[in-house]
Amino acid sequence: MKLKPRLRRNPRRDQYTYRVTWSPEDGEHLGLCAEFPSLSWLASTPEAALTGIRKMARAAVKDIEGAGKSAPVPLALKHYSGAFRVRIPPQVHRSLALEAAEQGVSLNRLASAKLSS
Predict the structure, then answer these.
(1) Strand ranges, E, within the chain
(2) Which residues contact 82 (CB under 8 A, 6 or more apart)?
(3) pTM
(4) Residue among 50, 48, 26, 30 nearest 40 (CA)
(5) How many whole angstroms separate alpha carbon 88 and alpha carbon 109?
(6) What distance in Å separates the CA atoms of residue 22 and residue 24, rounded to the nearest whole number?
(7) How far apart are CA 16 and CA 54, in angstroms?
(8) Alpha carbon distance 61, 72 (integer Å)
(9) pLDDT tens by residue, 33-49
């Protein structure tokens, strides 16, 4: 007998971005989900914190979809253009433009290098 693969109603449910960190205030590991910044899970081990926040995120998706709304798209599945606007004070803009000119690079290349370092 051949088994059929189990289809998930929403394949994005477990493709969210999780992080586990130590919480000195609580003295426990803290599980977080970037797509659901209001959710967190405290546990005595990192593994339990990850398991807890994943369950919480799945429950949140279920509640959201149950209300007829769309759950957040996982960050890993979003398309990024590579362009965004940033407002800076005019004197900072002038300083960066001067630095770029002195280095013989475009302002865009200089800003990109500074942001990625």
Answers:
(1) 18-23, 28-33, 40-43
(2) none
(3) 0.70
(4) 30
(5) 16
(6) 6
(7) 9
(8) 8
(9) 999 999 999 999 999 99
List residues bridging with 23 in a β-sheet. Answer: 28
Q: Rounded CA gap, 10 and 6, in Å?
A: 12
Distances from the Cα of 33 to the Cα of 57, 95, 110, 113, angstroms: 7, 38, 32, 28
Residue 65 CB burial class (10 angstroms; 0-12, 13-18, ≥19): middle
Give dist(CA 115, CA 111) in Å, integer. Answer: 6
DSSP 15: -
Domain ranges of the chain: 13-76, 80-116
Which helix (DSSP H) or strand (DSSP E) does residue 61 occupy?
helix 46-66
The amino acid present at 103, given as its one-letter code, is Q
Q: How far apart are CA 114 and CA 111, in angstroms?
A: 5
What are the pLDDT digits (tens) for 38-77? 999 999 999 999 999 999 999 999 999 999 999 999 999 9
Supply 89's token pair.
Answer: 């004070």
| Token pair for 54 | 């994943």
